Amino acid sequence: MCEFLNTSLNGNLIKCTRSENFQLSYKNLTFSLTPFELESFKTYLSKIDASYWEKEYENSIYEKKIPIPTLQTNLMLLIDRYELYELLDLLNLKKGKIYLDVEDIKYPLILN
């Protein structure tokens, strides 16, 4: 039996009551995590400085600039600021409302 703990537009967090493990699905990624691994992942995400990574990789060819390393040396996950915020919300790390700055909205403005 599994229990949905949280859901967002692109993912969900499920706790399996029998094994006490968690399953985090986000976009096309699925993580099976023990309680310790989930807490470690939460801690890691909460310490990411999105502004630093966006500045560090401002000339990168990739649109997403925030790296999440994995234990597999040839695999790195890249996310953007909005995905980081959504993951933090999904894991209940960010409390309260998140307000966007004008620079955060990437939409072409067309004046008619």
List keywords for this structure.
112 residues; alpha+beta; four-stranded antiparallel β-sheet; two-stranded antiparallel sheet; 6 strands; globular
Please sum up the structure shown.
The chain has helices at 35-46, 50-56, 81-90, and strands spanning 2-7, 11-16, 22-26, 29-33, 66-69, 76-79.
Layout: helices, strands, pairs:
Blueprint: E1 2-7, E2 11-16, E3 22-26, E4 29-33, H1 35-46, H2 50-56, E5 66-69, E6 76-79, H3 81-90
Antiparallel strand pairs: 1-2, 2-3, 3-4, 5-6
Description of the structure:
By secondary structure, this protein is of the alpha+beta class. The protein has one domain. The protein contains 3 helices and 6 strands. The chain has a 4-stranded antiparallel beta sheet. A two-stranded antiparallel ribbon has the order 5-6. Strand 2 and strand 3 (22-26) form a beta hairpin. The longest helix is centred in the middle third of the chain and has 12 residues, at 35-46. It is globular. It starts with a strand and ends in a 22-residue tail after the last helix. InterPro entries: DUF6686 (IPR046508). Pfam families: DUF6686.
Question: Helix count, per DSSP?
Answer: 3
The order of strands across the largest sheet is 1-2-3-4
Mean pLDDT: 87
**What is the ordering of alpha helices and beta strands?**
EEEEHHEEH
Shape: globular
InterPro entries: DUF6686
Pfam families: DUF6686 (PF20391)
